[in-house]
Every structure is written in C-alpha cells, then in structure tokens.
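Q: Convert this sequence to structure tokens.
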Amino acid sequence: MRRPAWLPVFYVGPAVLVMAAACLYPVVSAIQLGFFDWGLGTPWSGARWAGLDNFVSAFSNPRVWSSLWTTLMFAAVCVSAEMVLGIALALALEHPVRGTALFRTLFILPMMIAPIAVGLAWRYIFDAQFGLLNALLGIFGVAPMGWLADPTLAFIAIVIADVWQWTPFVFIMMVAALANVDGAVIEASRIDGARWWQMTFKVKLPMVMNVIAITLVMRLIDAFRVLEVIYVLTFGGPGDSTEILSLHIYKTAFVGQQLGVAAAVSVLLLVVVAALSWAALRLSNPLKESA
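A:
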C-alpha cells in the first residue's frame, strides 16, 4: 500500500506552523512597532503613529552606523578566530590519545556557563588593579594595563571573552563531522601517497564543508546578537568603542525609552544578519552551487 503524498505534511505541518509563528510574530511585531511612538509602562492604545520617522531617525543617527561597524568588526574577528581554532583543535584531537576524553569534557565547559557569569569572570580577570591578567603580565615585567579603559584594549577584551566561550561550539561540531568522514576515502588517499596537509585540505575539510557552513552561519548569528557579556564587561565603553548594535538597541529601548526607534534599528540588524547568513551559505558550499 502506497503512502499518501499528503501524509508527511500532516505529520510535520503542525510543528512547521508553530515554528513559523514563533519566528514570524516577533519580526512582524518589531516592524509594526517601528512605525509607532510608544513608551514602556503605557498602554498600546496610547501609541502614536509615527510613520517613517523612527526609521529616518535611526538611519540618520551616526551612532547607529558606528555601532554597526563595531558589530561587523567584532563578528568578523571573533568568528574567524573561533572557526580557525575550533577546526584546528578538532583535527589535532581527531585520533584518540590518552587524556583526549578529559580534555574534550573540560574544553566544552565555557559554553555551558551563563553569559552573565562569563562577563563577570572576565571583568575580574581584566581588572586594572586586581585582575589576574595584569598579575600574570607583571611576572614578565609588563606594566599593568587598563584593559577596559582603553578603546582598543577593551575591544580586544570582549573578543577574547567571546572566543573563549564559543570556540568549544565549533570544536564540538567539527569533531562530530570528522568522525563521520568515510574511512575508506581517507585510506585510499593515504595509499595514493597523500600527505597530511593534502588529506586535510583536499579530502577531509571538503567532505565536511556543509557542517562548516552551518557552523559559520550559527556563529555569525550569535555574534551579532551577543549582549550580556559586553553589557557586563564594558557596557559599550569606553565611549562607544565596544557598543555593538544589540547593545545600542537595548540602550535606545530601555535607557532612552525610544522603543519605536529601537525597533527600527532591530529591523536593520535583522536585514544585515539575514544577508550575511545567505552569503556565508552560498560561499561556503561551492560544490552544491556548481552541481
């Protein structure tokens, strides 16, 4: 007896509808809010129609574009470092050796810690007077540095915190992907005389390119919406040197009480993330595109 063509839709349809509603409702609400002037603590019935004023105000604000540039730089540096380190560690620990299981367990602990706790921990580490990092540098004769008081050092600090927490995610994804690589292909390339770097860059990594692409997109999305760690570490300072777009949206909405403008900026963030995710998937899977 043949299965009806509509049966898979019957089973999967409800879950798809729930997921679509959960994803689309916040987006539609944010776009709607962008056309109104509304403050917290007031009923929605009192919201005033603002038209495109919020979007004009947001896109003409130099601080928005400065925050967007900071976000792009932060995402580019963090995701690049995490992808390189995560893939390199997965390749290094691909074959089981003594202590590998313990190292893998310890290595994934940072991503299990709450972002607020991560921010607090790194804030103490980067403290100019009592921080662990300056104490370690002092052993080598390096003078204490104000990590969170200098714009460049503060940016480096938030990058270090993010890379420390999320490199394990890339590591886990790559370990799982490499474990599923067909051993016969690896053995055939070894018999053909392929060297380590040839097997790595011409056999293994191309075979797990889909996983690399998905991991890259997931980390890009997370890097653009990170908030808690930077909120605790620097709150966007000094000045606005570490104010990424998500933090700017928070300040605009809850400090400046401009929810409509914040919603307009969040729409900009959504468009940027969607465009970058699409580009990453296209560029990371050339074999599928050429097929």
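The first helix runs from residue 7 to 33.
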